[in-house]
Design brief:
Layout: E1 19-32, E2 35-49, E3 54-58, H1 65-72, E4 80-91, E5 94-97, H2 103-112, E6 114-117, H3 131-143, H4 147-160, H5 177-189, E7 195-199, H6 207-224, E8 227-231, H7 235-241, E9 244-249, E10 252-258, H8 259-265, H9 269-276, H10 315-319, E11 325-328, E12 331-333, H11 336-339
Bound molecules: adenosine-5'-triphosphate (ATP), iron/sulfur cluster and magnesium ion.
């Protein structure tokens, strides 16, 4: 079992949070060649999201971003298992503990209150049926409208998103990648969700289409006043989209701050590297790459998981896990070089 770490709770936001994730742990419990193995993809993560806030999650490939998102929305299939912690949403003033819901309740919450645009979600569009059938199958049961009013609402939603309602009569293969992703987002948001979760919604798209899709998501989020949990490994996207960013490294949250603070005054050496490696207009100097490789989550490094790659690593970093503590108001960081080594 991993070492228990004391954490300071996140600073309270002005309003009651819509999402509270508390010390969440989710492992892939695998069995191969006669050996049981836990891949600790989410290991003791706590965060909150305020009403109307865009909370961004960043980190390199395989750091656990998708697993965190799946665990938060209750999309848990073996070998993934939640081994600790809780996830609570507040919808319409009512607290919903995501792991206490029946599958039917979870399904209703997912469409009515919580919209999920998961990694590769363009695949929810059935390739052999016209797009109208996806709206009919997924959204109609949750909107409580008669058919005529439902289709009117769908067309109005598509039009507001600058999508021609004719897409309803298309098959997915007839649309470009960008149109397919925009249609998927329209489908996921037609029920006017209070909370939107999007995992790498633009990664497979070219830069121009990416911008259109991000603008569309931001428009929906502003219009509905929804909260938004937004995953991308692309820090430049967070710079323009996210109000606050949490940095995940090897299954743990290592830093969290409001976006301008994070980009101007990152405290964790890993975040500093992510920010420093962003391209800058007119600057042709080579960006220094981070030495070493991302750690295995089946056998992560002891102490601070970043220590094998950290230029500031001290002896204590190999032995003890740095707690995520508030270094400044609304700025949490897990690093002994910031918080001081424990005595
Ligand atoms: N079904 C699975 N079974 C076993 N291990 C898995 C499974 N899915 C993911 N993993 C492992 O869990 C870890 C975290 O994966 P995850 O997909 O959450 O990372 P990520 O940060 O979303 O990566 P990316 O940026 O590439 O999308 C990785 O080590 C991955 O290999
Ligand atoms: S705790 Fe130590 S190893 Fe980890 S980031 Fe800070 S200085 Fe580096
Ligand atoms: Mg992912």
């Amino acid at each position: 079992m991993p070492t228990a770490v004391l954490q300071t709770p996140p600073a309270p936001a002005a309003a009651e949070p819509v999402l509270v994730v508390d010390r969440l742990r989710a492992y892939y419990r695998t069995h191969a060649f006669g050996l049981d193995r836990d891949i600790r993809a989410v290991d003791d993560i706590s965060l909150t999201v305020a009403p109307g806030e865009v909370y961004g999650i960043a980190g390199e490939s395989s750091s656990g971003k998708t697993t965190l998102i799946k665990t938060i929305v209750g999309a848990i299939r073996p070998p993934l298992a939640v081994v600790g912690g809780s996830v609570r949403f507040r919808f319409g003033g009512e607290i919903r503990d995501i792991y206490a819901l029946t599958p039917a309740e979870l399904q209703t919450i997912r469409w009515r209150h919580l919209s999920c645009i998961l990694q590769g979600s363009m695949n929810v569009l059935n390739p052999v049926r016209q797009i109208r059938h996806s709206f009919q199958d997924f959204a109609f049961p949750h909107m409580g409208l008669k058919p005529a009013a439902f289709w009117q609402a769908v067309r109005a939603h598509l039009a507001r998103l600058d999508l021609d309602p004719a897409v309803l009569d298309s098959y997915p293969h007839q649309l470009s990648g960008g149109m397919r992703q925009r249609t998927t987002i329209a489908l996921a948001t037609v029920c006017t969700p209070e909370f939107i979760v999007a995992d790498e919604p633009t990664t497979a798209l070219d830069v121009i289409v990416q911008r259109d899709v991000l603008t569309m998501l931001r428009d929906i989020q502003r219009r509905l006043g929804s909260s938004f949990l937004f995953v991308t490994h692309d820090m430049s996207v967070h710079a323009t989209v996210s109000d606050r960013v949490g940095i995940v490294y090897a299954g743990r949250l290592v830093e969290e701050a409001e976006t301008p603070t994070l980009f101007r005054g990152a405290l964790h050496p890993y975040t500093q590297h992510l920010v420093a490696s962003l391209p800058r207009i007119g600057d042709t100097t080579r960006r220094a790459s981070l030495p070493g490789r991302p750690p295995s989550l089946a056998d992560p490094p002891s102490g601070c998981r970043f220590h094998p790659r950290c230029p500031l690593a001290m002896d204590v970093c190999r032995e003890k896990v740095p707690a995520l503590v508030e270094a400044a108001p609304r700025h949490r960081v897990a690093c002994f070089a910031v918080s001081g080594a424990p005595s």
